[in-house]
Task: inverse folding
């Protein structure tokens, strides 16, 4: 997810993963429009996390493969899952 109010419109998410991110038409930034579906898209998402400004792109999921990759490159963007 993209942290609310954090996006600086750097363009990195839509450049590196255009199938996964969309620019907000109201001009407030971008958002995750679709979750990654395969290892290639997970790689694109990780590249966004590594290159975007201010750690605005974050992960709150439970997928072990994603957690493992993020823990090795950007562990400070992993948030505890909500709910159960």
Result:
């Amino acid at each position: 997810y993209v942290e609310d109010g954090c996006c600086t419109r750097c363009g990195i998410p839509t450049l590196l993963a255009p199938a996964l991110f969309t620019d907000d038409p109201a001009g407030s930034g971008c958002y995750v429009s679709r979750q990654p579906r395969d290892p290639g898209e997970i790689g694109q998402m990780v590249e966004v996390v590594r290159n975007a400004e201010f750690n605005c792109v974050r992960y709150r999921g439970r997928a072990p493969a994603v957690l493992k990759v993020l823990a090795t490159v950007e562990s400070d963007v992993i948030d505890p899952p909500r709910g159960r």
About this structure: The chain is about 35% helix and 5% strand. The chain has a mean pLDDT of 87. The longest helix spans residues 39-51.
